[in-house]
Amino acid sequence: MGLMLGSAGCFSNLIVYLIQEFNMKSVDAPLYHISNVINDCTSLFPTAGTIVPDSIFGCFSVIAFSSLASQLGIILLKLTATVDSLKPSEGETPSMFQLEVLYSGLTLASIAVGGTRFTIATIGAAQFAKTKDQGVILNWFFVTTYVASVISATAIVYIQDNIGWGWGFGICVGTNAIGLAVSLAGKRYHRLMVFSQTQSSHYSYSCAKTQISKLPSSALSLSLYISLIFLNRAALKTEGDIRSDGSVAKPWRLCTVEQISLTVLQALTMDRYVGPHFQIPAGSFLIFSLLSTTIAISVADRLLSSTWTKLTSRSPTPLQHVGLGHVLNIMNMAGSALDQTGSTVVPMSALWLEAPLAIVGVGEAFHFSGQVSLYYQEFSVHLRSTTTAMVSLLIAGAIGFYMSTTVIDLVRRITGWLPDNINQGRMDNMF
């Protein structure tokens, strides 16, 4: 929880921080690019961050190192908020040195997310032997993640907006330090996963080296992948691969089988007051998505799954969860486009963002946790950290954020849908 609070507190209000403290404007570069690249990194790094524990050091060592990197990154961000020479004066553009310090802090914090985001889930699920128990612990991992995100999107964002950025980042430093200390203290109670070979990295090499090999007739009896046929090549035992004692002679040849930024910008131009005095921070609107995800995961785990089992005599599969989640997301995008069509009241109430964000959260509860469960249960134990993090690459957004950056650039170059004043744009066309 502490590690998640530390990283989420840094990124929840990042766009507002860049606009207010580094004088970056609207969707212009470098604001939108920085935001998207950070989202890319926090989605892409978990894949690399889980190859390392699967291959070399193990989950716990990677979590400890990543937490230290996170601590350094958050400290740098706190310095940019509190030391005048590390941020531009009002109305000025940031200097190269100021940007370097900012980028260094963001990079370290992103690396930390890469090393902990799914590695924690993997080491948690590894404490249980039954598939059902593993699915439950993965669901509650996501509940904890989203609860931490809710706290960061409300309490920490409020402190950043109303008390000071230094205090906000300082709290992130403290929670991250507490999380690191608790993690280190609990090491002796963990059932650690230890691999004698760097199996996940051998896997890709094995696929390439044996791609031209012919499948022997005995391969039909192997426990191989049915859909991902090309992965079967990595499991072939060819002459010279096995020593006389049955151990692996050539391990590098043989392997066993196994919408955020725009929402914040919209909120900045809308009426965010609830009552005459209280104004919801723009960065806190993501709470509607986070809360709906947390509630939906809990309800799906305790109520929907049992109801589905009683009606069909079968448990819902992870793939069914994924499909339902994507259907909800498609419906939400269509609804958001209709909501933006013909909106003439400026500024309109920001509470109109509640329903779309809530639907996004419910959809994410199904497709995100379903995807993680699918990868964790279907692949070999040697690849569990890596495959669990693949959801971050494919679903949580690394590829999606890079594509989003490209699309935003093209739209701004070719159309007038995203002007500096987003109220004069065509968000319905964007959705």
From TrEMBL:
A single MF term (Gene Ontology): transmembrane transporter activity
Domain of life per record: Eukaryota
Coiled coil: none
Regions crossing the membrane: 56-81, 101-125, 137-159, 165-186, 280-299, 389-411
GO CC terms: membrane
Keywords: Membrane, Transmembrane, Transmembrane helix
Compartments, as annotated in UniProt: Membrane
Membrane topology recorded in Swiss-Prot or TrEMBL: Multi-pass membrane protein
Signal peptide: none
Record-stated family: Belongs to the major facilitator superfamily. Proton-dependent oligopeptide transporter (POT/PTR) (TC 2.A.17) family.
Protein's recorded name: Uncharacterized protein
Organism expressing this protein natively: Protea cynaroides
Lineage of source species: Eukaryota, Viridiplantae, Streptophyta, Embryophyta, Tracheophyta
